[in-house]
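User: Mind token order:
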Amino acid sequence: MGEIVAAVFTTHVPRLMITDPQARLAYMGKNVTTFYDAMEQIESERLGKLNFDTYALIDTHWFSTLAYILNANERLCGIYTSDEIPQMIHELPYDYLGDAELARAVEAVARERGVRVTAAPYPHLPIHYPTLNVMHYFNPKGRRRVLSISVCQTASIENDMAFGEVLAAAIRSTDRRVVLVAAGGLSHRFWDYDHVLERASASADDISAPGNRIYDERMMEWFRAGRHDCVLDAAADYRAKCSPEGRFSHYLIMAGAMGGREWNWRGEQFGRYEAAIGTGQAIFFFGPDKSDAESPAAVGGLP
């Protein structure tokens, strides 16, 4: 029986792909992001030591409309240039094994449960940079399979949670060991055109609104404490007030897969909480406590 061995909430910001130190300084000034080191650290100290087959990555730049879509190709390969910010991500070669089997299993479980999911096997289905940027760091040798998953822009919080439950049930129906990745940010309001470049540092002082920073920090406190019940209770208000990236669907799908309000894994933060041209960004690794890992039920109630 398959299982989810860990979960990661992570930034995917384009600046991750600025490789030249001088170019980083030119763009961000003295407050250069800590994420370069943090992404490598989480891979070497946590992910690289785990026994698993597949990254199931929820991509907040892949917006679907009628259903949740999974890339069901056996291989994901090509050369990518971002149409949003080509000066940072261009001519990027990528080559990963896909996970068509798991994609089809998710589609089958969804059909049984009345959740609309499409496992799309089309060879020219685009790959978006949240998938590629994160895999560049988390899957540097391409040893793990990659299942890229859309967020559905017409879905409710309840829909996202239900899809997460489908995803977990499908994983259990296979022999796959999976790390879930919620690839997206926290609050997501950019600075306007006239100020965006002068506010491009990684300093949290460059978050676009004080209220967004306060709410992000509250969410991160709950991440650290494993209080996913509190995050879920606040999710509708957070979406309305802070416009989190992807409508917060990356987190909601992940939480649904991990047991919803019963999920209590604590988040370990890598790098700082940072701004990216006004948006809030962070990286958290969620793994079971030793007491949880030794128990038949990895996800339990809060004490």
Remarks:
- The radius of gyration is 18 Å.
